[in-house]
TrEMBL record:
Annotated protein name in UniProt: Serine phosphatase RsbU (Regulator of sigma subunit)
Entry annotated with the keyword Ribonucleoprotein: no
4-aspartylphosphate: residues carrying this PTM: D62
Organism: Pseudonocardia kunmingensis
GO MF assignments: phosphatase activity
Length: 407
């Protein structure tokens, strides 16, 4: 397979103070490529101050210029424009200096008096191509590092609920709204506290950038630590607001949150406390979809005087509860020009009442996207909690092995 010929550069910047040498280089280049534009500058200072580097494909740099010593000129050019393709020009006695220049960042070195037009233009072309390749590799590495950071943040935002030993089961769904993004500002978690109460949270940091995603991960981890440390349930939101205020990068940034504290009761029943901080209410899925809607308090980060009242909710045996972020309901709904909103979500849940809870979150997003005519623009997080004894979540019992355990 033959290699491709490097594309011809359109402009070369020649940094040379000797008029005779400058004329000779221009003539050699013109013989091979008459269309090549050659700009001559007599000093590195003129090059840097005049911003000539960004308008040139390659720099031919004489190392023996007034006001520069050794590789000083090369270093100044690379500091001014780190991706510049530079070929250094040396005298015959300075060949070792040319090799040192390559080690310092030059693409090639040329010895005056030993190059003709073909050698000169080939060196310029390959210098440009090598610099382009190096720049592409650098960008690829930066993208790989950014992807690795996204994976770390994603692990922070998409946890494995800590519910082992409880009578509660969780299913989750997460999708970032940003194009080509794995993560967003929404977060969720569910944890079994030290007293046997199951705590769950769904939150939404306003904004969609990586800073908001990082803050969402921090808030989730902080909330989990507070629960596991045994902080009283009424103090969880005030403590979480303290974390938000101290860690946010913008003083106007706020976060909406829904928390649920579930105390399992006998025969699959449970008692729950629901608190809302500017967030959509959770929905009790059984026997019919019904919102559990306490008074909505201010989002976290708006006022240090804010309080969040709890709504007690009694959950019958085989209960199921869904908490979600507003990205699910803010896309277009079945009524033209109107978002889906909570009413539309309740209608969807009624239509999908027979679907397995494991499949419900993804199915709701699929239906919402059908109404929206495409992907939802905002982040979406959904957490479905249920009694672990719920028949819809358990495989059929084996008649020959007793009652069996739920999945």
């Amino acid at each position: 397979m033959t290699g491709s010929v490097p594309a011809a550069p359109r402009s070369v910047l020649l940094v040379e103070d000797d008029p005779g040498d400058a004329f000779l280089v221009q003539e050699l280049l013109a013989e091979v490529d008459p269309d090549l534009r050659v700009v001559v500058s007599e000093s590195v200072s003129e090059v840097v101050k005049g911003d000539l580097l960004r308008r040139s494909d390659c720099v031919l740099l004489d190392l023996n210029l007034p006001g520069t010593n050794g590789l000083d000129g090369l270093r100044r050019i690379l500091r001014a424009h780190g991706t510049a393709a530079v070929c250094v020009l040396t005298g015959l006695d300075d060949e070792h200096l040319g090799m040192a220049a390559v080690a310092a960042g030059a693409q090639d070195y040329l010895v005056k008096g030993k190059v003709d037009g073909q050698v000169l233009i080939r060196a310029v072309r390959y210098a440009v191509e090598r610099r382009r390749a190096e720049t592409s590799l650098l960008r690829l590495r930066e993208e790989e590092l950014a992807a690795a950071e996204s994976v770390r943040l994603e692990r922070g935002l998409l946890p494995s609920p800590l519910l082992a030993g409880s009578a509660v089961r969780a299913r989750s769904f997460y999708r970032a709204g940003r194009t080509r993004s794995l993560i967003g500002g929404d977060f969720f978690d569910a944890v079994l506290g030290p007293t046997g109460t199951v705590h769950a949270i769904v939150g939404d940091v306003c904004g969609h950038g990586p800073d908001e995603a990082a803050l969402g991960a921090l808030l989730r981890v902080s909330w989990r630590a507070l629960v596991l440390a045994g902080v009283d349930e009424p103090q969880l939101l005030p403590k979480l607001q303290q974390v938000l205020v101290s860690e946010r990068h913008d003083p106007s940034l706020f976060t909406t949150v829904c928390t649920v504290a579930i105390r399992p009761g006998p025969e699959g029943s449970a008692d729950a406390l629901v608190r809302l901080a500017g967030h959509p209410p959770p929905v009790s899925l059984r026997p019919e979809p019904c919102p559990a809607a306490p008074a909505v308090g201010l989002p976290l980060g708006v006022s240090t005087e804010a309080t969040w009242d709890a709504l007690p909710v009694s959950l019958d045996a085989q209960w199921a509860l869904m908490v979600y972020t507003d990205g699910l309901i803010e896309g277009h709904g079945p009524v033209a020009g109107e978002p889906l909103w909570e009413e539309g979500l309740l209608a969807l849940l009624a239509e999908e009442r027979d679907i397995d809870l494991d499949e419900l979150p993804a199915r709701l997003v699929e239906r919402a996207q059908e109404f929206n005519g495409g992907a939802l623009s905002d982040d979406v997080a959904i957490l479905v909690l249920s009694s672990d004894a719920a028949p819809a979540d358990a495989p059929p019992a084996d008649p020959g092995s007793g009652a069996g355990e739920p999945a």
